[in-house]
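re the bet — no i am not wrong, look at it urself. input seq straight from the record:
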Amino acid sequence: DADQSIYEFNGANPQLLRELAARDDVECVRLRLNYRSGSKIVEASNFALGEARDYKALDDAEEGTVYFHPQQGSYEHQAAEAFRTVIADIAKRHPDLEPGDIAILYPAAWLGDKVAEVAQQVGLSVIRTDTNASRLMRWLESCAKWCSGGWQTGTPRFNHLVNEGARLFAEEINTPEMRLAFQRALMQCLWSRRDGTLVLRKWLSDVRAAIIKDLMVKCRSMKDEGETLDTFIARTQTGKDCEDMTVSQFAGQSEGNDSLHLSTLHSAKGREFPIVIMFGMDQGSIPRNNSTASQKLEARRLFYVGFTRAKSEVHIM
């Protein structure tokens, strides 16, 4: 799906998929049906994408609704308005809806800090899954998914975790012997922590100490990734916004219906929620006024991805 190749900053290039589809020895079968969203949401997502795709919802799908909420002022003020008016109105119209049925999506994790702070002030619980712009964090999420039941279903496969980990730490894991030692250490570490209900703080700290710490010292290219991990671990400490997060929630396996979901547009890929609030969609920001043509295209795809996370309602702020 070329429209979901949204990691251009990480080297993804949708044109490669188009070139592959154009080869004489490749048969291209175009998929049109969106199984997750209402017809009006699919129509709006096509408009947001800015390119004709002929996508459509299922014939018996509900229409869905798109709401616009023009906002001014600081992001803290906008977040307060989201809770005071938007979410309050959703609760009135859908009295049986659980908080976990609502996701607030935003372009960057620092915006999630603003939303989380205001949520704490008004006494609402949130779950944040906005870390996977980092290769290391995405790999750890996969490891968490394996520990949360993936070891039984083969999703993901353990050899995939080994392969991705070896790529991350390729500066150090550069011989068959080193790879075998890494595989054994990873299995020993994860096998003893196959419980999605474990507190994430302990799980992450243990995995960091057993697998990552020594590799980080020897892999200079991973310095920034290590800092991202340490920053996130700090967020899992007592009194912080991710204090109560479990391993399965980190892996996106548990919907935790008593808490609102906060996520970046990137991290929301592959997820689905009845109602999505797209926060921080400021004019001149998505895309930025000074963006290149390539950046503007990626921003439109991100906007499109945000739309298609929603089943029945999209609220744009």
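see?? The chain has eleven helices and eight strands. told u. also The beta strands are 33-34, 56-57, 65-68, 102-106, 126-128, 260-264, 273-278, 310-316. so pay up
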